[in-house]
Amino acid sequence: MQIVSYLIYLIASVLFIFGIKKLGSPKTARQGNTLSSLGMFLAVVITLFDQRVLTFEYIIIGIIVGAAIGSVMALKVQMTGMPQMVGILNGFGGGASALVAFAEYFYLIDHAPNLEVSTSITIVLSVIIGAVTFTGSFIAFGKLQGFVTGKVVKYPLQNLINVILLLAVLGAGVIVVLEPLNTINLYGIVAVSLILGVLLVLPIGGADMPVAVSLLNSYSGIAASMTGFVLQNNMLIIAGALVGASGIILTIIMCKGMNRSLMNVVLGGWEDAGSGEGAGGDGPKGDAKSVDAEELAMILDSAQSVVIVPGYGMAVAQAQHAVRDLTNILEKKKIDVRFAIHPVAGRMPGHMNVLLAEAQVSYDKLFALEDINDDFNNVDVAIIVGANDVVNPAARHDQSSPIYGMPILNVDYAKTVVVNKRSLNVGYAGIQNELFFYPNTLMYFGSAKEAMNKLVNELKEL
Prior knowledge:
- It contains 17 helices and 6 strands.
- By secondary structure, the chain is α/β, with parallel strands linked by helices.
- The protein starts with a helix and ends with a helix.
């Protein structure tokens, strides 16, 4: 039976690896999800048969209840709410790991008071990381949902307090390792770790949530891997390590996409980030030229190549279907339409891809920054729908700008640039976008959904 279980675990691990690989492309993401799900199913089944399960009643009840909740969430949660769902699922994963390690600790000290040092260390790490992930993910969920402010939250001695709490947790962990029977310390570790999770995520601004969600996803994987060492379950170790590693890699990619260090994001980013105030400050000045739906329709009608750049504003307005309608009518007029996706557009990695996929936009039309940036010189019209900092040319030349060096989409190289926003308000970085005042830029004011629908109607009349 042990040989069979190891073989099934190996098969499941391979399925996980291929599943993650296929998740790297929208075209194969469904296949990747199916392979990973099959791997997890095999791992769960063989674990239940291999382990000494006293009773299956509670397990069956848990499966039924969990499957029911998961099915309802999958059917009811809108695509615009997917970042929140991912955030909360990260939290559940971390919480589950902490609970299992916590329970295993008391089981072990009842049956073998002299815990091995390695077991004690992995229990402590699993509880710490799992508890931090649990509360941190719920704060991320609150920021995404609007229950918690999306602005950078700072208070006196913030970093010092976090360091003290972290040292306290680690100190208590050392005591648990040295004195396993001193259970009060583990309770203290849980309590402080839960608080630490809140304090670590609160300073992260709402626009940095893609990085936060990715990092918390990595935490949940690391916590699961630590729990795997506690339970001596190879499959859990492998699965957790895969999630932890892929999450860290994605986090690094996201940080590079903003040209910022992970510490800058975690410690709260720019001081004035997320201020959301008007077009004041020291940014560029000038007269921004505006255009209405009728005028813009005539411009598009004479174009041959159009690139649409979606941003968080499109997600907020739930305008993905209206953008899809715009794409369809332009293509009927024999106009080439593509989408340029910045790696940090939206509130989670791949947010724009998910929204456009929901609106049935073909995967072949979606291009990453590095795949389309060199072609903007050949684009007749670039339409920015709700994006801001990721198209700000100041990132290329203004060394005093907080976004200097951040890779941006070169939309200003297009013959005509159309920016759809509600106003000239600043973006998350708290600076004015100089693109608004460029001679080839036209501002198309209004909510993305309403503005795109008006534009579609005008195009139909031409």
